[in-house]
Amino acid sequence: MTSYDPSSLLADRTIVLIGGGSGIGLEVARRAIALGASVVLGGRTAARLDAAAASLGERATWATVDTGDEASVAAFFERIPAVDALFTTAADYVVGSMRDLDADQASSPFASKFWGQYRVVRAALDRLTPDASIVLMSGAASVRPPAAAPAYVAANAAIEGLARGLAVELAPVRVNAVSPGTIDGNLWAHRDDAVREAAFAQFSADTVLHRPGTEQEVAGAVIHLFTNGYTTGSTLYVDGGYSLR
Ligand SMILES: NC(=O)c1ccc[n+]([C@@H]2O[C@H](COP(=O)([O-])OP(=O)(O)OC[C@H]3O[C@@H](n4cnc5c(N)ncnc54)[C@H](OP(=O)(O)O)[C@@H]3O)[C@@H](O)[C@H]2O)c1
User: Fold this and answer.
1) Which residues constitute the domain of residue 88?
2) Is the distance from the beta carbon of residue 44 to the nearest atom of ligand 1 less than 6 Å?
3) What average pLDDT score do residues 116-142 get?
4) Which residue, 71, 153, 227, 232, could crosslink 167 as a Cys pair with Cβ 3.0–4.6 Å?
5) Which SMART domains does this one have (predicted)?
């Protein structure tokens, strides 16, 4: 992965997608397979991973893993000899105001999204190929805080900082972050209709392009970061201009 040519640079590479059984991770898997890569999907639910891998074909394999459990993450990587690219969408947290959440609840974006990704990268360290590319999952709330989500804002800002710190420590391995706005995809499809519609209307009003994004648009950015050999320590905002307003 030394120059930008996604049509060939991912061929025969191994891409690990934890959270790849659904949503943005699964869309990255589809694109990577189309570009000739093999993918290893991770997540907590075997049936979801099995169905996702079956939809991708023989170059997709899967194993269960819980990014909240260090031993589980270590066991997951034991069966993968080399990692060329790594992206973790796995996270499970609550979002709310300082007044509404106690400290344990408020720490969940750090516990799951920040430390989950930290654990994954650390467990993969000895398997990363010299030109490997890591993309961390953030969220554009990092730079434009919504009304009542201060700890979630801080966790995403920390993830973008982690990408910069790891880009320095792990070079020539490249480390970047992708920071989406609100995405009309699997995550929101499983939320209450009224909550989703209100969130999409608010986001559409707040962002320059006046609509939520798509999983395909985020996946395209992740593939770009996997394959662009001269980008490291960057955060790519796939947010329709949300962070500008
Ligand atoms: N969608 C958006 O609007 C949006 C916007 C900004 C940022 N993001 C970020 O994107 C990520 C979510 O991705 P998504 O939108 O594609 O949602 P998603 O479809 O819900 O994907 C999350 C995946 O992670 C897995 N997972 C959750 N917790 C896990 C754990 N502890 N260990 C292993 N796997 C776990 C889930 O499967 P199991 O439950 O089976 O484990 C699921 O397949 C989050 O970090 C979120 O903050 C999303």
Assistant:
1) 6-183+215-237
2) yes
3) 98
4) 232
5) PKS_KR (SM00822)
